[in-house]
From TrEMBL:
It comes from the Bacteria. It comes from Kineococcus glutinatus. Residues 280-308 are annotated as: Disordered. Residues 291-302 have a biased composition (Low complexity). Residues 280-290 have a biased composition (Basic and acidic residues). This is Uncharacterized protein.
Amino acid sequence: MTVLPRPSLIAYNGYDTGLGNRVRVVLSAQSLAEHEGRRFYYVWPTGPRFGPRFADLWVHPTRGRVVPRALSRGLARLYPYVDESLTWLDDAKRAERVWQVRTGNALALPAGAAPWEDAFRALEPVPAIRERVGRFFDANLRGEPYVGVMIRAHTVSHRRTRETSPVEWFVERMQEIRRHDPSTRFFVSCDVPEVAARVTAAVPGSCTQLDKGAYNSTEGVRASIADLYLLASSGHLIGPHFSSFVHLAQHLVRERLDFETPLTQAAGPVDHRRHGVVRDPLRPAHRDVDTAPGAPSGTGAAQERRPG
């Protein structure tokens, strides 16, 4: 397949690029392509380091088409990669037939371009993810506000994240919050099952998904996306420094939730109830603010650990 017959834009993702970076690069590049009247393509490598295609995660995820990594690299001899800054965008660049964007960040979209976050919120997860989210939410979290906690502990996590966001800090912070309000409940998302089990065992009132599949396999990434919607359905977010994943949860709820990291911690209690209760965890921005907390109603088997 050729991409040369009409003006085009190709968004390039590296083979080892994680989910958060892939989503924001592809969707922001799609917005730029539509704003500039260009046909949109993107590189989405799959294999042992990252198993699923975009379409394995969300239904009709983009209005573009996937192109092979080799094709993009070959075209780079004629059409070199540019970055997310868009400082390169001028009349001479607009005359070029192909643009190739290679970055790990969302593009700095021009005025008038559709926000990529709107496209992200509009995505519909595939049935396997929808069912997983619904089962866990109904069995463990429905009807009551809670705090969402996202921990990065895997060895492939960025060095800055591991150094600034140790697991021990999350446990101490959760215990501190619970001392102020012993009824506080937590949903824990972690990329290492053993760490998730240790954290939930140390903090009463916490739960986490089990049986999430191998890291970055199709099953594993689907479970991570389920985590994403469950985090976004919380009333307060605690996450690691320098991780794009937890920010996807913020985008799902239009940045309404208070968010803290080890570097931005506000000591003391948190008000995780003021944002209300989510009815549909796949639409976490829609909340019943006046709904009084009640006991969670459960249907189906839960993939959880709730030690207290």
